[in-house]
Structures are given as structure tokens and as C-alpha cells.
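User: My notes are a mess, but here's the protein and NAP's SMILES. Can you give me a structure?
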Amino acid sequence: MTIAITTANGQLGSAVVSAVVARVGTSNVVALARTPEKAQHLGVEVRPGDYDDREQLTSSLQGIDTVLLISGISAPSERIEQHRNVIEAAVASGVRKIVFTGIQGAETSTAFSPIVQVSIDTEELIKSSGLQWAIGRNGIYIEPDVEYAATYAQHGEIANSAADGRCAYTTRPELAEAYAALVTTDTHNGRTVNLSGPTLSQSELAKYIGALVGVTLTYRPMSDADYLVDRTSELGDFFGPVIAGIYQGIREGANDTTSDFAAVVGRPHTSWDEYFANVEIAPPVD
Ligand SMILES: NC(=O)c1ccc[n+]([C@@H]2O[C@H](COP(=O)([O-])OP(=O)(O)OC[C@H]3O[C@@H](n4cnc5c(N)ncnc54)[C@H](OP(=O)(O)O)[C@@H]3O)[C@@H](O)[C@H]2O)c1
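Assistant: No problem, the inputs look usable. Here's the predicted complex:
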């Protein structure tokens, strides 16, 4: 049984490759990468995997039993075509099963919703592809907040538009464990599972991050309009509104979800107490 992982040199992709290798060994894993030289260090066979090149994907998926489609990072209109390319290439090359990394979040009404819609549309393409399938819906990564810890400390606060909304965050290593289970077993075929940890409010997150950097961080709620201006000036016209939309969705309850992680992996999610007791922090980013 040969398993292919797309975007294998990315942060999630490389973590999944390691987790799958731990289960089935290097000879049963193929890394697909748009830039193959960036994936050589993974220690498995590397094949080209550009989401914009269906012919190349069809060739690279020859002999593959199961493919993990890790969601792309392009704008929504391009991203759905990229996902379609992978799904149709999988069908054309005789792949048996496809697993997809979807996303949790507000399906309508926020600037993040077009990305959630692409995820849902991809799920529908997969379900009607004729392939066997399993779908994960990822929580929001906690790592960017940890990477920003020293910067939050300089500001003395976390400020955004999530207010009291609760968010099911996740970590890339735990996602990797869950996807390794989904691609190497058929237990969850035909199911859509939420992959995320216990929910956190922004005030709870501020306490954890503050403890990491040894300061008292406050949480300051902002209006959607103010946060949109803030994020757009920092991140630009595409990612700024996307991030503002994520926090609006959190406030509106779209990320207050329960997880299927334990059912998929066979152990509970690492508690946030334990995670924050062991995580390392980076220097300030500005
Ligand atoms: N849950 C969350 O909070 C959250 C946050 C951010 C993103 N995401 C989603 O999760 C995915 C994985 O996250 P990550 O942290 O692993 O991202 P990452 O480290 O930035 O990796 C992105 C990967 O996508 C590849 N890529 C970009 N365009 C491609 C194309 N046209 N064809 C094939 N590969 C392409 C990149 O390849 P190159 O090295 O060649 O550029 C890279 O390997 C993201 O793509 C995004 O959909 C989720």
C-alpha cells in the first residue's frame, strides 16, 4: 500500500510524512511537492506535485493506493481548481482512496467564508468522485500565536474581534498523527471528522501565552471594522481580511466545535496545560 502526501515539504505535509513513515516505513510513502528539491530531506521517494498541473499529478499518482490532499494556499477561485486537479488526477491514475484536510469556520458572512466554501466544495467533489474517502476538518493552528508570543508581550495584550467566542485550536503535530491514522486505516472511510483540541477563549489564550513569556497579557476585544483595518495594514489586502474573517467567525461561534481527534487517533488530545508547559517560544517578529 503506497501513500502519497501532497505539499510534502510544507509544515503540515512534512509532519504528516514523518507520522506516516512511523506507521508504514519509508518505502510505502511518496512525497509530492511542487518544488521536489525542497522535499529531498524527508527520506522518501519524491515526485513532482504542482496543483496547477493535472497531467503531472496524474503521472505522479501512478501506483498510489491512497493520497492525502492537503488544502492549497491560493485564492479561493484558483484553489478549487487546484483541488479538482488532484481529485481528477487521482481518479485517472487508479488511486483507491483520497483523504482531504478541510477547515472549520464560518461558512457564510465573513471574509474567511470563501475559503471555507472552497473546502466544502472540495468535500463534495471528493464524495462524488467514486473514490473511497475520509475528510478531516482542521481547527485553527495554535502555532502562529505561539510564534507571536514575544510580540504580544511587547504589546502587553492580545487584541482582536473574537470577543468571548471560543475556538477549537489544534497543533500541526497532532493533525499529522490524525491524518496518518486516516490514510493508513480504513476505519473512518466515508466520514467527516473534526480534528482540533479543546476550545479556548482569547482571555484563556492570553493567560497561556503570558505565562510562556513571563508577563501578564490582557485581552482587548476590537470591533470587526477596526480589526479589519488593523490586519489589512499589517498583512495586505488578501490575508488581512481573511484573518479578520476568522476572528469574526470565532466570535459568532463557528469554531466552538467538538473534536473527533480521540476517536481517530485512539488517545485524547494533549491538554493545553501540557502543551504550553512544553512548547518553545521564538524571539519577537517585529
Ligand atoms: N488550520 C489553520 O489554522 C491553517 C492556517 C494556515 C493555512 N492552513 C491550510 O493548511 C495548509 C497547510 O498548512 P502549512 O502550515 O503546512 O502551510 P505551509 O507550510 O505554508 O506549506 C504550504 C505548502 O503548499 C505548497 N504549495 C503552494 N502552492 C502550491 C501549488 N500550486 N502546488 C503544489 N503545492 C503548492 C508549498 O510548496 P512550495 O514550497 O513549493 O511553495 C508548501 O509546500 C495550507 O496550505 C492551508 O490550506 C490552515
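Residues 224-251 form the longest helix (28 residues).
User: Great, I'll file this with my notes.
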